[in-house]
Amino acid sequence: MTREPAIRRATTEDVEVCHDVMWRSVTDFGRRNGTPLEGTASDWWASGERLQRFLATHAAEWWVAEEPDAGTIIGYGRSIERGGLFELTEFFVLPKSQSRGIGKALIERVFPVGRGDIRSIIATTDVRGLSRYYAAGTVARFPMLTLTGTPADARPGDDLKARRLSADSEADLDAQREIERSILDFAREDSEIRWLLEDREGYLYVRDDMAVGFAFVGQHGVGPIAAVDPVDLPGILLHVEGRACELGIERLEFQLPAPNEVATRHLLGRGFRLDPWVNLLMSDRPFGRFDRVIGFGPPVFL
Q1: Using one digit for the tens of pLDDT, what is the confidence trace for 135-151?
Q2: Taking the model in full, what pTM does it have?
Q3: Candidates 3.40.630.30, 3.30.70.100, 3.30.470.10, 3.40.50.2300; correct CATH number of 6-137?
Q4: Which terminus of the chain has a smaller tally of CB atoms within 10 A, N or C?
Q5: How far is residue 85 from each of residues 7, 28, 38, 54, 135, measured CA to CA in Å?
């Protein structure tokens, strides 16, 4: 008689194995979907280890499924919660182990119905996963687009001033949080902003001594980015692109909610291209003003 996979809480010892499950699952879907992804598991780990360890230590829920005899991890799910926003960040089962009830057991633990003021997922278009997300009470709201390109030297107009965001300045942190909360109905905690600033440059964009936007840019990714008024997005994006060029970043990726028409048209006009890979923003109810925000990249959470 075949024994059922064991479901248990994950530990920090599981972080690299879970990353391997994610890589194998995502690249398999990419091949099946006609959008193959580049890089080995080791390549992805080299660039993503810091993010994976952050998720491991800040997870609201993190569970793994493993074969009962060998103890091999064959699936996992993880979620993060901040400011009332409850996000499913990862949900993967190895292809050969699917259709065994593992996904249902995992998602019931990592993304339980009723938890969170807002429940959100940045989901792939894999129909097997989408069926689970609808069962968990979320609905596809709009596509999440990836625009990629080579950054060029660029400068915003003189009316918008870029000022480095300091982790030691409560005024800076408060300004960033206030903008984010006004746009997305939630704000990251200081600890997450400080984590971002360890690896990315953060900027506040100021006009007439008033912060009107923020952005984060670094070697391992861009975002989040937001503007109080979408009209300021082109200027913010020009500064981010110019800063990426100065940092020697050869490939720049932006994670754009499809309703953000100002940023999308601006980047397309700058020569950036739409990547064939498209995700979906799913949530249990409408929230936020996504015409003025760009998500964290890589797209595991907003």
Answers
A1: 999 999 999 999 999 99
A2: 0.94
A3: 3.40.630.30
A4: N
A5: 25, 30, 31, 17, 19
